[in-house]
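hiii so um. not sure if this is the right channel but i have a protein structure encoded as tokens and i wanna go backwards to a sequence. like what aa goes where. can anyone help
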């Protein structure tokens, strides 16, 4: 075999090995980021909302490693001014902080193993959406009417990435700043155009409801889930 050709194959093999190691390292780092973010969110919920009778006062400024995002424009059709809609216990200066953001409560979805703080609507921003799910609109958590909670779909098991796996009848648990924890049952799930926002102001006929909003995996539409508080 020609020595030059042999050397070329050797160099090519080395480059392929380096590329494989780099890809494995990148994927490993992404997995580590997701693992750290998920566990810090769960620890925060357990610390501040795990005891629904005695929530401690805030002195926490927990930092998380937000995963990379490629659906930054999913809320372009939503007027950010709606996040200031007053009502309920959506925000409080005494609320515990998560990664520097005031929280409104927490959300747990057993079917997707989600346990995450809900950032208060007064803190709504792209940075807040990169940190946790955010209360977007409505009377407030666990209040009569429809309260919308928005979150990114990172397609990596964080935030609302697995909402597509939820089914009618699945349970969602919301704990608010008063320590009240309510169980909700999903009764509707559908996709809508990205600029669709009518679902946020729907009439619940006196019921306590939530709407979960995220983007679809291809980021072309919005995935909406309706859930009603159990009697």
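sure thing!! here u go:
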């Amino acid at each position: 075999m020609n020595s030059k050709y042999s050397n070329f194959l050797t160099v090519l093999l080395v480059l392929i090995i380096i590329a494989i190691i780099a890809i494995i390292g990148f994927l490993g780092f992404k997995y580590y980021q997701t693992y750290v973010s998920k566990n810090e969110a769960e620890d925060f919920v357990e610390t501040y909302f795990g005891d629904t009778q005695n929530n401690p006062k805030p002195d926490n400024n927990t930092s998380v490693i937000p995963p990379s995002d490629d659906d930054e424009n999913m809320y372009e059709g939503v007027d950010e001014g709606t996040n200031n809609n007053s009502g309920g216990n959506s925000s409080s200066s005494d609320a515990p902080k998560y990664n520097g953001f005031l929280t409104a409560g927490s959300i747990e979805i057993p079917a997707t193993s989600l346990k995450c703080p809900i950032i208060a609507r007064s803190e709504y921003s792209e940075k807040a959406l990169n940190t946790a799910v955010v209360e977007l609109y409505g009377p407030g958590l666990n209040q009569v009417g429809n309260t919308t909670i928005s979150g990114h779909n990172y397609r990596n098991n964080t935030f609302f990435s697995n909402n597509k796996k939820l089914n009618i009848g699945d349970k969602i648990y919301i704990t608010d700043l008063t320590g009240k924890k309510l169980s909700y049952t999903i009764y509707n799930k559908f996709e809508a155009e990205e600029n669709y926002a009518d679902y946020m102001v729907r009439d619940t006929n006196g019921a306590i409801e939530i709407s979960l909003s995220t983007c679809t995996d291809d980021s072309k539409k919005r995935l909406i889930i309706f859930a009603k508080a159990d009697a």
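oh and Residues 52-88 have pLDDT under 50 and may be disordered.
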